[in-house]
């Protein structure tokens, strides 16, 4: 009899498949039986990690590690034990059950994250691998810092990067077609980054998002284990994996209620030390630096100057003919442009941001950055402006002060579905920002 509170992972298999994103491809696949957290019905579905054919010999089907890691957050969020037919690595089991699961659940019990059990055979035999060194790549500041750092003479040869990984694990969408279309649109961009960095690109499409509770609260807050599951699927290839951290070590806390909106990246240094196994070592890359320090580090790195993309709206995905990879107006673009400006490096990024507009309306742009970004980013901007003797005008501070009530009002209004309906109906997002608000997709159905 199947217990309601269990995820059952059958023996993983490697299969040829016709992939919608890759064409002829290879899959690591396992049947998963669990209660669907969205419908509460017990279902049996295939969970898969898809790769291009050349990676067939590196896929590891002798362990259940990739599936346990991929489903760990949904299991903890929904209080389900995980049972597996094929073994998981003994070291991984010990660290997860002794440290990660009890401690993350203890400090995030209200989230809720539960102290679950892992049930099944263990194996401590190392798996022969090719000693590849990999990192995930989104094209943002954190990714480029990890890449630049691990291609530099600062690190020993054993730690030098050989591969970048692009997977679908980070999606916060639930629509298969949209997820696949976006993945296909991103693929050439990642390939061009890999080419510029002289690295190989590994592409992985997986359907882990189908096993998570929507609207992905746990998935988007505790995602490191999910992201890293891809490295476990390829543990015959990868021996070192750098997970780029968006948070400096000073924000460390196991309790997310104390991190003011930050996610589990604040304790990645802990998480990643708990998921090393006999074959794979993980590192939280970039926790030694703040965001602006990383921007300083990558500012002379030519692949970053050509390919950096930090934008929340990613205009080039909608229109490949767009001149700039970044909209240069959203809070993330404003933050990055202003921070490059105060370290005197904005001109290096003229191919990816509309710096002419920034310089033309500098007072307004900096005011908007101040009002739309976290205090720590604004503080860093002020600190580095002082160090580099870059003047932030009084006008920017004054405008930021005047914008504040509008921001508060906007925050109140955007919670109203009625206001959103009007906002989209009148195309105010196009009128204000020049593009469709990325949140439109998640509201489309509700405001019909
Ligand atoms: Zn933008």
Poorly predicted runs of 5 or more residues? none
Globally, the shape reads globular
Q: Give the biggest sheet.
A: 11 strands, mixed
Helix count, DSSP H or I runs of 4 or more residues: 18
Distance between the amino and carboxyl termini: 43 Å
Q: How confident is the prediction overall: mean pLDDT? A: 90
Bound molecules: zinc ion
State Rg: 22 Å
Give the % helix: 40-55%
Q: Number of folding domains? A: 3
The amount of beta strand, in percent, is: 15-25%
Q: What structural category characterises the helix and strand content?
A: alpha/beta
Number of strands: 13
Layout of SSEs?
Blueprint (H helix, E strand, L loop, with lengths): L5 E4 L3 E7 L3 E13 L6 E11 L12 H13 L3 E4 L3 E2 H18 L10 E2 L2 E2 L8 E5 L4 H9 L13 E5 L8 H22 L2 E7 L10 H5 L2 H10 L4 E7 L23 H6 L7 E5 L5 H8 L3 H6 L7 H4 L12 H12 L12 H6 L1 H11 L2 H13 L6 H20 L3 H9 L2 H6 L6 H4 L5
Parallel strand pairs: 1-5, 5-7, 6-8, 9-10, 9-12, 10-11, 12-13
Antiparallel strand pairs: 1-3, 2-3, 3-4, 4-11
Helix pairs in contact: 1-6, 3-8, 11-13, 11-14, 13-15
The structure holds zinc ion (ZN).
What does this structure look like?
This protein is of the alpha/beta class and 448 residues long. It folds into three domains: 6-285, no CATH class; 310-413, no CATH class; 414-448, no CATH class. The chain is built from 18 helices and 13 strands. It has helices at residues 65-77, 90-107, 141-149, 176-197, 217-221, 224-233, 268-273, 291-298, 302-307, 315-318, 331-342, 355-360, 362-372, 375-387, 394-413, 417-425, 428-433, 440-443, and strands spanning 6-9, 13-19, 23-35, 42-52, 81-84, 88-89, 118-119, 122-123, 132-136, 163-167, 200-206, 238-244, 281-285. The strands form two sheets. Strands 1, 2, 3, 4, 5, 7, 9, 10, 11, 12 and 13 form an eleven-stranded mixed beta sheet that branches. The protein has a two-stranded parallel ribbon with strand order 6-8. Helix 4 (176-197) links the parallel strand 10 (163-167) and strand 11 (200-206). The mean pLDDT is 90. Bound molecules: zinc ion. Zinc ion (ZN) binds at residues 311-313, 326-327, 329-330, 332-333.
């Amino acid at each position: 009899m199947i217990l309601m509170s269990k995820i059952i992972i059958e023996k993983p298999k490697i299969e040829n498949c016709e992939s919608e994103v890759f064409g002829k491809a290879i899959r690591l696949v396992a049947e998963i039986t669990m209660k669907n957290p969205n419908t509460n019905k017990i279902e049996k579905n295939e969970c898969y990690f898809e790769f291009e054919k050349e990676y067939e010999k590196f896929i590891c089907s002798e362990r259940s590690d990739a599936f346990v890691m991929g489903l760990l957050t949904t299991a903890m969020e929904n209080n389900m034990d995980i049972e597996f037919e094929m073994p998981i690595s003994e070291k991984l089991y010990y660290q997860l059950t002794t440290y990660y699961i009890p401690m993350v659940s203890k400090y995030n019990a209200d989230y809720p994250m539960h102290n679950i059990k892992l049930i099944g055979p263990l194996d401590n035999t190392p798996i022969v691998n090719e000693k590849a060194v990999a990192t995930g790549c989104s094209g943002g500041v954190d990714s480029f810092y990890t890449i630049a750092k691990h291609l530099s003479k600062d690190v020993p040869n054993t730690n030098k990067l050989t591969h970048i990984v692009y997977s679908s694990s980070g999606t916060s969408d639930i629509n298969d077609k949209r997820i696949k279309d976006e993945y296909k649109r991103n693929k050439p961009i990642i390939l061009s980054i890999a080419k510029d960095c002289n690295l190989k690109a590994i592409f992985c499409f997986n359907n882990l998002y189908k096993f998570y509770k929507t609207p992905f609260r746990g998935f988007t807050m505790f995602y490191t284990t999910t992201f890293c599951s891809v490295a476990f699927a390829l543990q015959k290839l990868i021996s070192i994996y750098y997970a780029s951290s968006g948070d400096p070590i000073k924000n460390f806390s196991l309790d997310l209620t104390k991190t003011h909106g930050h996610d589990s990246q604040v304790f990645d240094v802990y998480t990643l030390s708990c998921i090393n196994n006999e074959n794979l070592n993980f590192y939280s890359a970039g926790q030694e630096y703040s965001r602006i320090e990383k921007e300083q580090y990558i500012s002379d790195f030519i692949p970053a100057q050509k390919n950096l993309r930090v934008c929340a709206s990613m205009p080039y995905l909608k229109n490949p003919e767009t001149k700039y990879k970044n909209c240069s107006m959203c809070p993330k673009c404003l933050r990055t442009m202003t921070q490059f400006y105060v370290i005197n490096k904005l001109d290096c990024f003229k191919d990816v941001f509309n710096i002419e507009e920034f310089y033309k309306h500098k007072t307004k742009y900096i005011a908007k950055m101040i009002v739309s970004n976290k205090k720590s980013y604004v503080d860093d901007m002020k600190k580095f402006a002082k160090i580099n003797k870059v003047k932030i005008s009084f006008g920017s501070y004054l405008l930021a002060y005047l914008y504040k009530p509008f921001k508060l009002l906007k925050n109140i209004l955007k919670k109203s579905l009625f206001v959103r309906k009007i906002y989209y109906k009148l195309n105010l997002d196009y009128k204000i920002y020049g593009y469709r608000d990325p949140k439109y997709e998640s509201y489309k159905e509700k405001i019909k």
